[in-house]
Amino acid sequence: MKNHPLVPIVLGAVMLFLFDPAHHRANAASPRGATPGRLEVSGNGRYFVRDGKPFFWLGDSVWSLLSLYTPAEAKEYLDHRSRQGFSVIHIMIPFNGGPGLQTSGSNRNNELPFRDWDPHKPNEAYFRNLDALVDAAQKNGQVLYIIPMGGSAGSFVDQQHVFTKENARAFGEWLGRRYRETPGIIWMNGFDLAPWRYQDVAEEFAAGLRAGDGGVHLLSYAPGGGFSSSYFQNEPWLSFNHIQIWSDYWRAHSFVLADYCRLPIKPVVMAEGAYEAGTEYPSRPITPLIVRKQAYWSYLGGGFHTYGHNDIWRKNANWRDALDSPGAQQLGILARILAPLKWWNLVPDQSVFAHGAGSDETLDVAARSTDGDLVIVYLAGSAPVSVDLRSISAAEVVRVTLVNPENGAESSVGEFSHHNIQQFAAPGGASDAVLILRAK
Questions:
Q1: Where along the chain do the CATH 2.60.40.1180 domains lie?
Q2: pLDDT at 29
Q3: Per-residue pLDDT tens for 120-138?
């Protein structure tokens, strides 16, 4: 049965009610008193702000930055990523490897984070290196997203039992006090496990951290693959949601959208997907196209995104070459596409598509501005799709621009009546494309 012409309009109205950042605003946590350089949650609970301005989260995972990189190498990495537009850097305090990589947990100076591996005995020399890293990132305007109880698949709680219910609160309080006045930090609770595992340890750490820093830093939770921090959605200590999809990259949009719809409203970050050139994934090879898909699915699903590269987080011998990998460069292009478009006013809205939006690995996604003057469409495959131009309500004429997500090249598609349903497709030979629809 064909849809009635008014169906997209009705669906759009329903989507606006559900996804409008102003809806349920009373349930959103208000930002704390503005502190220069410190990341906060926006008043509507949908995004991040710093110094009163919307902050665009484009993350990169380099878990071993504190342990395997020298200070000079770490600065080189941070400077390079800053030039590419990466604003949030994911690191671990204790790092002992991951799939196919095992390390001692010490840094390049053979310093351990704790004497006798006892969290009651932090090693000051180790944490001075973290201080320097925080300072280097802050000079670039970058934020460090730090997991204090990290390790591969919960190894520091599940295998080595370094962190326990008995010591997590004291460690959290010490950490909170030490960095209370330090901007440029976000904390990552959790252990890379299902969120209900060692929940008591996580809750003790959160209580200690909040006692130590008074709640001035944002805090989320890092679950294992296939899970979200939204398990803790109603916990006051959870500032925003952190998702890990691991190998199942095609689930990015559905995971982000699900957390976007939850109450109370909190920002959503697709924080760990499949890393470019990753060797451990059943879905490999993880190509630049897959990197782009995960990212556009995340941003147009109402969230933010963190990238990763196999040779960066492992610090393989070719890590410098990997800094300019195609995926990393193309996510810099994504940031340049979205930056001037008031991305913070966008809400996800699949009713933009009249039909043909695809699914799974070729899911086309869309988001529109609450002002009615902008729609962004990501075409994840080569099949044509029909777009309802009535999604642009601020003008009678819609101007459509095509952007190549591989190189950022723009071309005009044309101008159309906003009463039309118009068919679009990625140009011949292209794997994907971005459409920007603006009110004229």
A1: 349-439
A2: 38
A3: 999 999 999 999 999 999 9
Question: Which CATH number fits the domain 349-439, given the four candidates 3.40.50.720, 2.60.40.1180, 3.40.30.10, 2.40.50.580?
Answer: 2.60.40.1180
| Model confidence pLDDT, tens digit, residues 335-358 | 999 999 999 999 999 999 999 999
Contact 176, 207 (CB under 8 A): no
Backbone phi, then psi, for 173, in 5-degree steps?
Answer: -70, -40
pTM comes to 0.92
Looking at the structure, give the CATH architecture of the domain made up of residues 25-341: Alpha-Beta Barrel (3.20)
β-partners of residue 89 are 60, 144
48, 79 contact by CB (below 8 A): no
Q: State the Cα–Cα distance between residues 80 and 86, nearest whole angstrom.
A: 9
Give me the residue label for tokens 């504190």.
66
Tell me: cis bond preceding 285? Omega within 30 of 0 counts.
yes
CB 237 within 8 A of CB 29: no
Numbered ranges of CATH 3.20.20.80 in the chain? 25-341
The identity of residue 126, as a single letter, is Y
